[in-house]
Design brief:
Helix content: under 10%
Largest sheet: 12 strands, mixed
Number of helices: 0
Structural class: mainly beta
Distance between the termini: 46 Å
Strand order of the largest sheet: 1-2-5-8-4-10-12-14-16-18-24-20
Order of helices and strands: EEEEEEEEEEEEEEEEEEEEEEEE
Number of domains: 2
Shape: globular
Length: 290
C-alpha cells in the first residue's frame, strides 16, 4: 500500500477486562495506514511521534522516500492523528487519540498498536518523541539529526546511535518517566549538550562512541537510579554539588580540590565531557568501561 492507503485487519482479538468485579469483553479491530512519500528537494523534516499505548520501532530508511510510515492501530479504542507540512517545509506528526467510550478503558498493555517509521538519512531532521506505555526502540545512527526531544512515560525506551550521525546535533532534551530508559552509544551522536530531567525509573546513559567535540551532560533526576557508562578514552569530570556522597558510586574517579570527580583520563587532551548532577534521591553511578 502507498500514499495513505488504509487496509483493515479483520483478525479482531477479544480481551477480558474486569469491570467493577464483573467480566466484560473489549473487542480490538485493527487497521493499518501506510505512507511513503517520495523524497524531493533537501528541506529539513520536522517529525513528531506521540504514542500513548503501543510499540514504536524507528530507524533509518531509504533515500528515495522522505519517510516510510506504517501505523497499526486499534480502531475500537483509538483514532489516528496524522498531520503534514506544506511544500518546501515538510513535517510529519503521527499519533493516536483515545476514543471516548461508555466502557472502562482497556489496559494499556492489552493494546497492540504499533508505529514503524523509517527516516531519510539525507534530510536534516528535527525529531520529537512523546512515548507512553509500551516498548519503544529507535536506531538513530546515520541520520542527520538537528535536534532530538524525548518525553517518556511508563514504557520501556531504548535509543541507540549504532553508528555516527550526520550533521550537527546541538542538543538532546529528555524528560524521563517511570519506565526504563536507555540511551546507547551517545558518542556517535556527539551532541554539544544533553539534558535529562525527571524520571523515577531506571536510567542508563552509555557514553561510548566517536565523540567529535567536547560536550556537557546535565542530569536532573530527582528520584531514581542513574548509571553512566564512561569509555576509558573520554575525559570526564563529574560535579555533584548537593548530592549525598553516599549516593555516589564513582570507582576510578578522583576528587580534586574544587570538589570535582575526575575520571581516569581527565586532563590528558582527549575529548572532554562535563557532567553536572543535581540533588536527588537515588544512586548515581559512573562506571568506566572499555
Amino acid at each position: 500500500m502507498r500514499g495513505g492507503a488504509v487496509g483493515t485487519l479483520r483478525a479482531a482479538a477479544a480481551a477480558l477486562v474486569l469491570c467493577g468485579g464483573t467480566a466484560c469483553y473489549a473487542t480490538h479491530e485493527y487497521r493499518e495506514i501506510r505512507e511513503r512519500p517520495a523524497a524531493t528537494g533537501s528541506a529539513a523534516l520536522a517529525a513528531r511521534v506521540a504514542l500513548t499505548a503501543g510499540d514504536l520501532r524507528l530507524g533509518r530508511g531509504e533515500r528515495d522516500a522522505l519517510y516510510d510510515l506504517r501505523l497499526r492501530y486499534c480502531r475500537s479504542h483509538f483514532a489516528p492523528r496524522l498531520a503534514h507540512g506544506v511544500p518546501g517545509a515538510p513535517s510529519l506528526e503521527v499519533g493516536l487519540q483515545r476514543r471516548r467510550t461508555d466502557t472502562m478503558a482497556v489496559p494499556s498493555d492489552d493494546e497492540r498498536n504499533r508505529i514503524e517509521l523509517d527516516l531519510n538519512p539525507d534530510h536534516e531532521i528535527d525529531l520529537r518523541l512523546d512515548l507512553g506505555a509500551g516498548r519503544h526502540v529507535a536506531s538513530l545512527g546515520g541520520l542527520q539529526l538537528a535536534r532530538l526531544t524525548l518525553a517518556c512515560g511508563d514504557g520501556d525506551v531504548a535509543l541507540d546511535f549504532d553508528e555516527p550521525t550526520r550533521g550537527n546535533l546541538e542538543q538532546i532534551d529528555v524528560d524521563a518517566g517511570t519506565g526504563s530508559l536507555q540511551l546507547a552509544r551517545l558518542g556517535n551522536a556527539s551532541p554539544a549538550a544533553v539534558v535529562v530531567r525527571g524520571g523515577s525509573g531506571t536510567l542508563e546513559l552509555d557514553l561510548r562512541g566517536s565523540w567529535r567535540r567536547d560536550a556537557t551532560l546535565q542530569i536532573g533526576v530527582r528520584l531514581g537510579d542513574v548509571l553512566v557508562l564512561v569509555p576509558r578514552g573520554l575525559a570526564v569530570e563529574v560535579r555533584a554539588a548537593g548530592r549525598d556522597p553516599a549516593d555516589l558510586a564513582l570507582e576510578g574517579f578522583v576528587k580534586d580540590a574544587e570538589g570535582r570527580y575526575l575520571g581516569p583520563t581527565a586532563g590528558n587532551g582527549a575529548r572532554r565531557l562535563s557532567i553536572a548532577v543535581e540533588p536527588g534521591i537515588g544512586l548515581f553511578e559512573a562506571r568506566v568501561v572499555e
